[in-house]
Amino acid sequence: MVFRLLLSGHDTVECCYYLRPVPGCGIDFEMLAVHREILRQSKSRDPKPMTLGGVEFLLHRSGSSRGFPFIISNPDWSVEFGEFNDPSFYVTYRSEGLWRESASGQHRKFMQWAAAAGLAAFKPETLSRVDFTFDYYLPVVDFDEDSVVTLSAKDSRYRNDRKLQTLVFGKSDVVLRIYDKIAEIEEASHKTWFFDLWGVSEDVWRIEWQVRKNVLRRFGIRTFLDLADQQGDVLRFLSHEHDTLRVPSEDSSRSRWPLHPLWVDLQEHIRTLSAQGVYREIDPAVLLNERMMRMAISVYGYLKRVAAVHCIQHGEAFATKDDALQRLEHLIARVHDPLTWKMDVAKRVDLIRLGQW
Length: 357
Prior knowledge:
Blueprint: E1 4-21, H1 29-42, E2 48-52, E3 55-59, E4 70-73, E5 77-81, E6 89-93, H2 95-101, H3 103-116, E7 119-137, E8 148-150, E9 155-160, E10 163-169, E11 174-180, H4 181-189, H5 194-198, E12 204-212, H6 213-218, H7 224-242, E13 243-245, H8 261-271, H9 284-314, H10 321-335, H11 338-353
Antiparallel strand pairs: 1-6, 1-7, 2-3, 3-4, 4-5, 5-6, 7-12, 8-13, 9-10, 10-11, 11-12
């Protein structure tokens, strides 16, 4: 069987921080509340760009479901916080930053920002969720949900065009997902920068454990330093005891079925892990070009509709692309306002630069 491990690391990390303002704190909580209320009353869905602690963020118009009154975000972080909350900050580290600089690198960056913003930690951070991921080149999938022996009581399977796409096991503290990462990128996340990290753009499947704090604590993982030193322990438990992929046999006990070669390779890789310091370069120009192409495809689809409507309006059998462009340009000229255009483009520049599309 042909398969190859392409990449392993963390894809989402969530962490609680216990931070207090120090004299000269650069975060004005009352002013943030005013800006948030202005956003809310404006009915605008667009967040407001602002600079805090020397870093640009987007301030969102409402608080979080966890009870934090403020949410700010940029391409690497989503930060929920409140002056009187305990913990005072809840940070979700996003995929792109984690693959670029590692979890510990992102944590260091956040703590540097906190110090620049006039915030000091009064006790160590506590990790709430870590997603451990392993991406495999896997051109042939010869297993299904019955091939997985797991301690989880719940499982589900998703197919597209009668073809297996995702297997999910578990619901709360540990969730294992085995899924077609290429399909997920095409249909949902659009994270095509993974193609450069992998060196391939097809036949990639992800094995991913989403682990929450109760299980992390069992293995003494509370801080980012713990994660770097002890993640091998939790991963060995997950891949040897909690979940295994098997090759069905005639044995009545599924736990005695032989391990699938893919899982043997995964266990061998996990055995080498004591710490992860993943550094990958993601080219922003490539990312923007890919998004431009997606927008061009969308505009092209609308252009066909313009051509069709033009044919019906004028009783014509056919309209060329140039005909449709000319018609669309005429309509846009009627609604174009130079001042509004300038302001809206400037606003979108900020939103794109800060990770909001």
